[in-house]
Amino acid sequence: MAEYNFREVEKKWRTFWKANGIYKTGNDLSKPKYYVLDMFPYPSGSGLHVGHPLGYIASDIVSRYKKMKGFNVLHPMGFDSFGLPAEQYAINTGQHPAITTENNIARYKEQLKNLGFSFDWDREVRTSDPSFYKWTQWIFRELYNSWYNKTTDKAEDIDSLVHSFEKEGNKNIAAACNEDTPIFSASEWKQMTEREKQVLLLKYRLAYVNESHVNWCPALGTVLSNDEVKDGFSERGGHPVIKKKMPQWSMRITAYAERLLRGLETIEWPEPIKEMQRNWIGKSVGAELDFSVAEKNMQIRVFTTRLDTIYGVTFLTLAPESDIVSAITTEVQRPLVEAYIQQAIHKSEKDRMSDVKSVSGVFTGSYALHPFTKESIPIWVADYVLSGYGTGVVMGVPCSDTRDYAFAKHFSLPIIPVLEGETADITKSNFIAKSGKMIHSQDLNGMEWGKALVKITAQIEQMHIGKQKINYKMRDAIFGRQRYWGEPIPIYYKDGIPYVLDNTALPLTLPEVNAYLPTEYGEPPLARAMDFKTQDGNPYEYTTMPGWAGSSWYFFRYMDPHNEKEFCSKEAQRYWQKVDLYLGGAEHATGHLLYSRFWTKFLYDKGFVNVDEYAQKLVNQGMIQGRSNFVYRVVGENTFVSFHLIQNYKTTPLHVDVNMVENDVLDIEKFKNARAEAKTAQFILEDDKYICGWEVEKMSKSKLNVVNPDDIIEKYGADTLRLYEMFLGPLEQFKPWNTNGIEGVHKFLKKLWKFFVDENSNGRISLEKPNPEELKILHKTIKKASEDIERLSFNTSVSAFMICLNELIALKCNKKEILEPFILLIAPYTPHIAEELWYLLGNKSSVTVAPYPLYNPEYVQEDSFEYPIAINGKTRTKILFSLDIEATAIEKQVIENESVLKWTDGKKIKKIIIMKGKIINIVTD
Ligand code: ANZ
Questions:
Q1: Residue 318 CA, ligand 1 centroid: distance in Å
Q2: pLDDT 10s digits, 667-694
Q3: For the chain, which has fewer Cβ within 10 Å, the N-terminal or C-terminal residue?
Q4: Alpha helices in 558-685 (DSSP H)
Q5: E strands along 85-197, which residues?
Q6: Nearest to 4 by CA among 741, 744, 759
Q7: Atom 18 of ligand 1 has which residue's CA nearest to it?
Q8: β-pairing, 146-149 with 154-157?
């Protein structure tokens, strides 16, 4: 192979790697471990585009590097293979989702293999595989059988809770449980029927079912989680989403709110992701306070973060969904209130929160008593109050809160100032609240805000009408989905009460159905399976698990993927511990990345895993954007004008498939063949070419800017693609794909090849000893490459390789002692060509197991140094000296230096102190 025939080289070594099991995870437990994980893909029907492998290439480089550094590396890949697209395809075509999923996975695997990744495919997992989801169901079962003990601050067996109930009821138990959990004694518990007991326990279980308001998407026929809804529409498909009350399986993630916050301090994740999780959890410290309702023996409890504003309360507002509304609404007001509720609950939560301008609300006819002034304040219903947050009731303080202010203005309610200078401007009011003085109320007048807050808090506690309270915005996570293509929830119903399946009954496999749609009664697709029942004829749960179930624990399964007895053995965990480096997109910040932390903490509490955070370091790779091309059609004509001429015409830009364009020049023949109307079109050219315009946009089919890695590999090879993606720019950055730039990188590899291989396909290698200059070039590059990999700065390394090669070519250095280490440095990036050149250098074993070159600082010692010159302690200038020059020679030059002369200003030099390689100090009179 005199020429660089990448097709042959890449095929040869991929076959070799496979045949020799090169990428099997090592099992020599005396070596240190390193676990590099990629977020596993959902295998969609359209395969990979060049943006997808970016993170995989980076993680592959790190894996190969760590392996060469002597680590046992776990670098697995799998598929998040349950999900909506396969199901919708099934609905449209009748094709079983298992079949399309299988086909898509096969295509993904082939594409991934062509990229030369060092995945250990023996460890592949698929979330839709019963041998995998058996364990997802097992975790569900554990969650169902657990409750959260706030006293020990961890999840415990439900049996321990039952035991406490039997002994002393629940009054002394601090648990994460439903708001409506009643207090009962041991004897009351014992008198309960089996059914009553089960209903009660559901209020404590970490996986539980209850009636709750959910995001219902009629068009998709399913419930969506909060993070799947954007601005009142489904994230996928953009269908309207409404709130609806339904029995729902949920996960009590709120029990872990505080620990999920605290854990963030212990992991090296990008700050924006941590901040998004903190905001999502939304911790707020405030107080709960009771208002009594006039003429009714009733209390209304509010949650406030501004108890200091209590004297400014001029109304209360209830969320439209609140159960209290009906109880306090007067008969006169009832029709108005009911009409208001009807229209309010159809709005999405986000609209209700953000829509400050359109103030709406209705008076209930009832009044509450102010706890201190005993004045009557009207009680309203308004949709800006959310039912699921705090107590679903707000004390309206128009002087301090923007929304309350807008509300009071709109309905002409009184506004009473409480803090000097306060104006209902949230930012300002928060500022004043931290510094201002109280006005208005007699006993607080002139008191500083902070002291007033302490005083009022003490007062309400003394009066037994309230207490300090910490609230979290985060809600429990809805778990059941009305879909077919997901894990069945291992629950069956007896007399309408849910029971969990025994472990021996797992996996509960997905039944066959005659259509992947809801039944005519609106039940989920699983209800179509006639025999989806226990042996005793009890029906199973019909909803399935959400997309995030399997991905919440898959990282443990890779450690021990074939274990049939456990989800992951203790032994495997002891060695692999946790993910050292996790690479993936930032879009999962409050979805997968939060749920997976939750499940890990739960498994930790129950002693199933030995870490309570599973990924020490997370890096979000940026997206590769598309570089779209445009043609310009003259309005009303079938004529296309080349880009630089369009100012002379009235044109409309049209996307053109980037695969018909090279260096922005349109292949007119291809274009004509692809579009019916283009066949007869006129083209107005410049320099005989049609030049296209371009723009950076999201890479997507609709913008005709998708570049398929298969095409690039076919044309340039996988090594070029890998190297080019790394060369594009810093890993975390968003950057456009530009096929034009790939030539340069390809040329580098060709040059590398030519440098090593002569016309007769032999290595041009000399065994001569390298000289200091050559060693310096090499060791500079070793230093750069190893430091760069450690900080995941790959683009800078690629430049360093290019510089190094040019310098070696200039020196005509083909010495084995230089070329071998150089190839090892490049090997993680371009493994195929590296393997071939390594072989040509006479090596018998794979480059992937060779030790990474060690940096020796002696070789790069500089022979000169630019000394800072300090005159009487102040650095005034710098002078370059050879490091082996004599002190007297330095002194002579220093004294004569123009700058030194200027700064010493004719004064006598008393002393010159030379600190070799550091600094020169001059002391004058
Ligand atoms: C009086 C007050 C005065 C309030 C003031 C704020 C500013 P965070 O920090 O987000 O927790 N609130 C309470 N429950 C609510 C609900 N269900 N829907 C909408 N708003 C609700 O916000 C807590 C504050 O938001 C609470 O403190 C309450 O208004 C309001 F100058 O009480 B505040």
A1: 12
A2: 999 999 988 888 999 999 999 999 999 9
A3: C
A4: 570-576, 592-605, 668-674
A5: 146-149, 154-157
A6: 759
A7: 385
A8: antiparallel
Phi, psi of 37 (to 5 degrees): -120, 140
| CA distance linking residue 805 with residue 778, whole number of Å | 10
For ligand 1, is residue 314 a contact (CB within 6 Å)? Answer: no
* Residue 350 pLDDT: 65
Residue among 488, 527, 528 nearest 249 (CA): 488
Q: Is the CB of 81 under 6 A from ligand 1?
A: no
SS3 217: strand
If you average pLDDT over every residue of the chain, what do you get? 93
All residues at 6 or more sequence positions from 12 whose CB lies less than 8 Å from its CB, including other chains: 836
The encoded tokens of residue 577 equal: 């511990």
Residue whose pair of structure tokens reads 């025939």 in the numeric block:
5
Cα-to-chain-centroid distance, residue 818: 42
Here the tokens at position 230 are 């954007």
Q: How far is CA 563 from CA 125, 132, 136, 379, 572, in A?
A: 12, 10, 14, 60, 10
Length of the chain: 925
pLDDT digits (tens, 9 = 90+) for 762-803: 778 899 999 999 999 999 999 999 999 999 999 999 999 999
698's CB contacts (< 8 A; 6+ apart) are 623, 625, 626
Query: Which residues on adjacent β-strands are paired with residue 841?
Result: none
CA of 302 from ligand 1 middle (Å) equals: 9
Single-letter amino acid code for the residue at 202:
L
- Per-residue pLDDT of 219-228, as tens digits, reads 877 777 777 7
H-run or E-run covering 804? helix 794-810
193 dihedral zone (left: phi>0; alpha: psi -120 to 50; beta): beta
Span from the CA of 389 to the centroid of ligand 1 (angstroms): 9
> What are the two backbone dihedrals, phi and then psi, of residue 797, each rounded to the nearest 5 degrees?
-65, -40
Q: How far is CA 347 from CA 234, 241, 376, 477, in A?
A: 14, 9, 31, 21
Check pocket membership of 433 for ligand 1, CB cut-off 6 A: no
